Amino acid sequence: MCLEGNMRLKDKVALITGAARGIGREIALIFAQEGAHIVIWDVNPEAAAQTQKDIETLGVNTMSAKVDVTNFKQVDEEINKILDKFQKLDILVNNAGITKDGLLLRMSEADWDAVINVNLKGTFNCSKAVSKVMLKQKSGKIVNIASIIGIIGNAGQANYAASKAGIIALTKTTAKELASRGICVNAVAPGFIQTEMTAKLPHEIQEKMLAQIPLGRFGKPEDVARLCLFLGSGESDYITGQTVVIDGGMVMA
Questions:
Q1: What pLDDT digit, counting tens, does each position of 20-78 carry?
Q2: Sequential DSSP letters for 217-237
């Protein structure tokens, strides 16, 4: 059961995309520990069901669905199902994302389109559908998961870098459009975080990345989740349109 006390998200309803594993799962768990009711969207229904089961032990209401965030019609329909169950939606975390790396000259059009569609168009689709709800409520928090790669670029990741840079620009524009109704929109730009996705990188690449991090360690999913918790809570009510880098000091402006 959830611990009683000053839970920062008590009775809030939070939708996290790509929440079955990795950073998304950790965000869902930490939000639930803080009292939020959780909606899990993922393309992996088995993993989503397990995450839902784990969250339910914390004493909050949950629901999960297999959702393709590139399909606006499906996204919109699933938002209506959330409203049928909870009658509101307070927080959206756009976490769903993929990589299909390759040098620019060798990158296929299909790999470019796939990454842009999931990462950038998916964030657009979910933000558009949820904004209608939040505008009526005159409240809400949207947290977009970007990346430091969207700020500094990275060889072999033209599609990923473009998608994450697009998310940062989308965050600023959406924040300006929704601010008058009390809706805050911010982005989180993680550096090297230990997930299944980054575990696939060759050892020599990981060592090279570690050498660039002043804190001397890779980030953990819970590091990102705690930042998302702050941006999703009332503690960040005067913060909007910002991109918060969380990378152990790897990139300093």
A1: 999 999 999 999 999 999 999 999 999 999 999 999 999 999 999 999 999 999 999 99
A2: S-B-HHHHHHHHHHHHSGGGT
Distance CA 29, CA 35 (A): 10
Segments in the chain forming alpha helices (H): 22-33, 45-56, 72-86, 109-115, 122-137, 149-152, 158-178, 196-199, 203-210, 221-232
Q: At which residue do the structure tokens 């970007």 appear?
A: 146
Would you please indicate which residues are annotated as catalytic (active-site) residues? 160
Closest CA to 243 of 185, 179, 194, 181: 185
| DSSP, res 251 | S
Please state the domain extents for the chain.
Answer: 13-245
Q: Which CATH class is domain 13-245?
A: alpha beta
pLDDT in tens, 120-160: 999 999 999 999 999 999 999 999 999 999 999 999 999 99
